[in-house]
Amino acid sequence: MDAFILQILNGLDKGSAYALIALGLTLIFGTLGVVNFAHGALFMIGAFCAVSLSKLLQLSYVTIDETQKDFLGNPLKVETPYVESWFGPEVGAAIIDWSVPLSILLAIPVMILVGLIMERGLIKHFYKREHADQILVTFGLAIVLQEIVKYYFGANPIQTPPPDALLGVSNLGAWFGFELPYPNWRIVYFCFSALVIAGVFAFLQFTTFGMVVRAGMADRETVGLLGIDIDKRFTIMFAIAACVAGLAGVMYAPINPPNYHMGMDFLVLSFVVVVVGGMGSLPGAVLAGFMLGILESFASTTWATTTLPGINQIIIYLVAIIVLLTRPRGLMGRKGVMEE
C-alpha cells in the first residue's frame, strides 16, 4: 500500500508541472487562438529567475580578517555577501537560504513583462494566420530564447537548492501507521501548484475581468460589439499565462536543476497533455496533467519497466493515441475547436 501511495504522490508531483504548463498553454489558445510553442521557454525563464536571484544574492566583497590566519600566519581574506552586510549576518544568510521562494517576487514582474513583449511584439501579428505559421514562429522564438539562456548561463545544469528548512523528507504515513517518507520540497511544489491552479480558476470564475474573458473565449465578436476592449484583456491573459508558466519553473528549479533545454523537454509533453485534456478546456488541461503524471509514475516502476521495457518513455503517447481514437476532441474538448 505504501508503494502504491508513493507512486501516486510521485505522479501528482510531476503532474503538477504538466498541469501548470498546460494550463498556461490552454489559456493562450482559448483566448487568442494561438498555438504557442514558446510556452516551454517561459517555464525555462522562470527557472532561471530562481538561478539569477540566487547568484545575485550571493554576490560578495572581500575583506581582510586580522583575527584569522592562514598556515603561513597571514590574515585571511573573507568573502562577505552584500546582503549580509546590509541586513546583518543572520538576516542576510536567511535571505540567501530562501532565495528560491523569494524568486517568486522577481519572476512575477519579469514574466508579465516577457509575456507582454512576446504578445505585442510578435504573436499579435499571427492571430489570423494558419496554426502551422504560429507553430513555426513560436518554435523559432523558443530556440532563440533557449540559445540566449545557454550563452549567458552555460550548457550545464545549475544546482538551485531549496531552503535548508525544507530539505530532507517527511513521513506522510505516520498518521496511518506506516512509513511513507517523501521529499519536503516536492510536497511544497504540489501545494504551490494547487494554489496557483485554484487562483487562476477563481480569477476566471469570480471576477468581472475573468467573466468577460470567458465570454470572449466563447464569442469574441459579440463581446467586442458591446464596447469592451477584449483584445486588451486577452493581452493581459497572455501575460498571466506567461506568469503561471514562469512560477511553475521557479518552484521546479530545486527538483530539476535548470538547464537551457528544460523548456523543450516539458513542451512536447505539455502539448500532449493539452490535446488529451481537450484543446481550449482549462479543466481538461489540469485533469489530463495529473492523470498522465500518475500514469507515467506507475510506468516508471521496476515491475513495469521489467515487464515492458521502455514503457515509461511512451506511456503518455500511448494514452494520447487511445484517447484521441475514442474521443477525438480529448477528454473535455469543446465542439468546433481546431476542427475547421
Automatic annotation (TrEMBL):
Keywords, sorted A to Z: Amino-acid transport, Cell membrane, Membrane, Transmembrane, Transmembrane helix, Transport
Superkingdom of origin organism: Bacteria
Entry's localization field: Cell membrane
Transport as UniProt keyword: yes
Question: Pfam families under this entry?
Answer: BPD_transp_2
Sample GO molecular function, one term: transmembrane transporter activity
Xref: InterPro entries = ABC_transp_permease, BCAA_transport_permease
Name residues in a coiled coil. Answer: none
Tell me the membrane topology, using the record's own terms.
Multi-pass membrane protein
Annotated GO CC locations: plasma membrane
Its Gene Ontology biological processes? amino acid transport
Say which family it is in. Belongs to the binding-protein-dependent transport system permease family. LivHM subfamily.
Name the UniProt record assigns to this protein: Amino acid/amide ABC transporter membrane protein 1, HAAT family
User: Which organism is the protein's source?
Assistant: Shimia haliotis
